[in-house]
Amino acid sequence: MERSQAENKIAQLRAQLDEWSHQYYVLDAPSVQDYQYDQAYQELLALEKQFPDLISPTSITQRVGGQILTGFSKVQHQIPMLSLGDVFSKEELGDFVQKLWENTKQTCAYSCELKIDGLAISLRYENGVFVQGATRGDGSIGEDITENLRTIKAIPLQLSEPVTVEVRGECYMPKEAFAKLNEQREQKGEAVFANPRNAAAGSLRQLDTKETAKRQLSCFIYYVMEPQKYGLMSQTQALAKLKEWGFRVNKQAQQATSLEQIMEYIDLYHEKRSSLPYEIDGIVLKADPFSVQQELGNTVKVPRWAIAYKFPPDEQETIVRQIEWTVGRTGVVTPTAVMDPVLLAGTTVSRASLHNPDYLKQKDIRLLDTVKLHKAGDIIPEISMVVLEKRPKDSQEYQIPTTCPQCQAKLVHLDEEVALRCINPKCPALLKESLAHFASRNAMNIAGLGQKIVEQLFDKHLIVDVADLYRLTYEDLLKLDKFKEKSATNLLTAIDASRHNSIERLLFGLGIRHVGAKAAKLLAQHFGDVESLSQATSEEIAQIDSLGQVIADSVVAYFANQQVKELIAELKAANVNLKYLGLSQEQQQNVTSAFSGLTVVLTGTLDQIKRADAKKWLEEHGAKVTGSVSKKTDLLIAGHDAGSKLTKATDLGIKIIDEATFIKQMEESQSE
Ligand code: IVH
Questions:
Q1: Cα–Cα distance between 118 and 302 in angstroms, integer?
Q2: Structural domains of the chain, count
Q3: Based on the domain organization, do 277 and 147 belong to the same domain?
């Protein structure tokens, strides 16, 4: 493609991607399928690679992070970032409102907003372009975290108008992202975050901005500096303007004109609190007209025109009856407190992870202790503290186990890890977890082979390692509880089908340390088969995009192991595919076909290609393949003896092609 042509195409792709991204991350209203987005993104990436001088700092491709920072420089806030005064009861809040009305001699409106539990950030835009982002710091001097903030998709890199403006808001980690992150950290033997706020703070201060990019942070903006410059008269108007400029603004903000409405707002969100996807710790009340805000002014630390009403903490007392230790897939042994059940934020809770021995020791949790329980991020039960006054007199410090609860092997701490690990490769708990992981959906995807079945197979000595799965017989399966002819046949079919998986599934399923699904795919694409990968050097692997030295060393160490070599040989003997069957990364980037972006239905009997292969091919070429014909269908591929779908498509005026035409178009796409 010529440069001028590329320039146009790049502009077009950026505009499209920005719009989709805005709909998804800012408006919470996705409008396209992931694959369609990915395809446009890959196309843009390829063009920018070809014409690097056309890359602009506001391009969506610049959000992935990658800069390794050496530290954070200081930023002086032009106008101090204030905190808020707070009250803990409705009476105090009522007093605050009344007093304010008395002082200003008018009953002005209030902007009621949720108090997002995150970190305050300040963002500067020059002529509509994001130029600097900072933390609050001590209010007058914060830290420059521009590169980290750039990775947050809810923060626009370019505004809808070329304004020069500074805005402020709250950066946070959604509850779900927090739960996932902690789960991963626990399994990796890393320390966990106490709550989403700490997780967000830790994520924003990553020197490797790629790490920030992975953390799924988001933000709400609620403050425009020097609003009069933009003709804004009130907070309500400011929020509307922020939204217009492209910022993510919390939809729950409401204007209230009476004390009654304010109290209703509090009650409503107190109740809804646990069902929101982000954590709030109260509500913020702001005098709505800027004239009133100006009249009242600020104290040194807080505005006189706003106040935070803090929710009472949702906490319950209960008694610790037992501490259970479980061995995960990676050998990490995790303690869980088992307590008398209590009702907490809408659910009955009786278990709380204690994460690792350090955590347990720090909190000094003992058997029969009375503890205060809350939900971190409103979802994860966590012991906040021990109620020491209620500790039994004869209580003894809890002894951390030194041997594995499953296999009695000695437990160890690897490197500097906080986690305790069982490193016996034959530990039954570890083997069972690894087998279940191997069969799981993102790995070999063996339907019907869940944790429970794996445990039975293992306990009945029918399997020990993953190669054994491929030697299971029909008779073996009939030995399982409630297994009959049909369930046994289904499972055998599912196991057999997994033989034909492309190797990224196998590589992920083997549970090589540090190799997640994404790394597995990159390795598969780069090396093409298990054989070549197993002979690769650490340098070769480390050179692959986004795989680092840690992964490279881990892969090399894995394949150097004699037992692994034997396992791979056994898998090969069992006819498990050891090759990559998808497209290489380069090929994938170049895939644009007549089918890109189309919603396609396959019907009737196909003679030259298997239905599943046709589906796979279409999906790899950007189509969405669905099962039924509707108005959204773009194309029907009809084999012979097609029935009602063909009739319906004809009625709806949908484009229909036969198998021969489809094959021809496939070949044409292939040779492009
Ligand atoms: S207004 C001068 N609005 O709460 C304006 N703050 O405890 C001060 N916060 O530092 C901030 N949600 O980080 C405001 N809707 C909201 C907020 C909010 C969360 C945070 C903010 C502030 C802290 C004070």
A1: 18
A2: 5
A3: yes
Q: Does one domain contain both 148 and 295?
A: yes
16-25, 252-261, 555-564, 602-611: which range is least confident on average?
602-611
Strands across the sheet containing 165-172: 129-135, 119-126, 165-172, 218-224
pTM summary value: 0.69
Last residue of a domain, one of 254, 289, 310: 310
Domain encompassing residue 328: 316-390
Q: Quick check: CB of 115 below 6 Å from ligand 1?
A: yes
Active site residues: 115
Domain limit, last residue, from 254, 288, 310: 310
CA torsion through residues 290, 294, 296, 298, sign: positive
C-beta 113 within 6 A of ligand 1: yes
- Using most ligand atoms within 8 A of CB, pick from 82, 170, 252 the residue to mutate for ligand 1: 170
Q: Check which CATH number belongs to the domain holding 332 and give it.
A: 2.40.50.140
Q: Is the CB of 170 under 6 A from ligand 1?
A: yes
Report H helices in 188-342. Answer: 196-204, 209-214, 235-245, 259-272, 290-296
**CA 187 vs CA 400, 408, 624: distances in Å:** 18, 20, 35
- Per-residue pLDDT tens over the stretch 102-112: 988 888 999 99
Mutate to test the pocket of ligand 1, among 78, 79, 83, 84 (most ligand atoms within 8 A of CB): 84
Q: Give the tens place of pLDDT for each residue, 462-514.
A: 999 999 999 999 999 999 998 999 999 999 999 999 999 999 999 999 999 88
Q: What is the mean pLDDT of the chain?
A: 91
